[in-house]
Specification:
The chain is mostly helical. It contains 7 helices and 2 strands. The protein is about 60% helix and about 0% strand. The protein has a two-stranded antiparallel ribbon with strand order 1-2. Strand 1 and strand 2 form a beta hairpin. The chain binds iron/sulfur cluster (2 copies).
């Protein structure tokens, strides 16, 4: 198999369809090798755990309740069309490695490509999605809850970063 990783569209400035196509291609050709790499498996597991912990903290502190109410009653406002453009091929590849099925078209043309009927469809969200606390949340949560949420967000984004950087090096070395 000819490796042409040097042609991977790097960074966010490419159409999402093209980035998804590349992520799926790398996944179908190399997931077997990637998932045999002990460091990748360990980083994936650590990242997955911190994502779960963050969701638990968001549930415990009332973020999930507030966001559900915002989305159902007020239409939400933070998963709009275009946010998917922030993702790069590595972000998308990580989702595939976590067993996520990437949609081939958006469910809602006015929303983010990854927004489904019941919320976000992907597991490994972009750092801008993870780190977002809007005014409504600042108003609804006490300062202790805000600090808990921020700490959980930070842990998730740090683990995402470690995995992304390792995968970039892996692709550069093996391409
Ligand atoms: S983060 Fe803010 S704007 Fe987005 S769904 Fe939650 S409450 Fe609404
Ligand atoms: S949380 Fe999910 S649906 Fe919302 S903007 Fe981020 S990736 Fe898109």
């Amino acid at each position: 198999m000819k490796k042409d990783f040097d042609k991977i569209p790097l960074g966010p400035d490419h159409p999402i369809e093209k980035k998804i196509k590349w992520a799926k291609r790398i996944y179908s050709e190399y997931s077997h090798h990637l998932l045999q790499d002990k460091t990748i498996c360990a980083l994936l597991e650590k990242y997955r755990q911190s994502i779960e912990e963050n969701w638990q903290v968001m549930a415990d502190t009332g973020v999930v309740k507030e966001c559900t109410s915002c989305a159902l009653q007020d239409g939400g406002s933070c998963c709009g069309s275009g946010i998917e453009n922030k993702f790069d091929v590595v972000n998308l590849l990580i989702n595939l490695l976590m067993g996520v099925e990437l949609p081939s078209q958006p469910w809602d043309p006015t929303g983010c490509w990854f927004l489904g009927e019941k919320g976000c469809l992907i597991t490994a969200r972009h750092v801008i999605c993870v780190n977002f606390i809007c005014k409504r949340l600042y108003d609804a949560l006490d300062s202790q809850s805000i600090h808990r949420v921020q700490a959980a967000m930070q842990k998730e984004t740090e683990n995402a970063f470690l995995l992304e950087e390792y995968l970039k090096v892996w692709l550069a070395k093996n391409g």
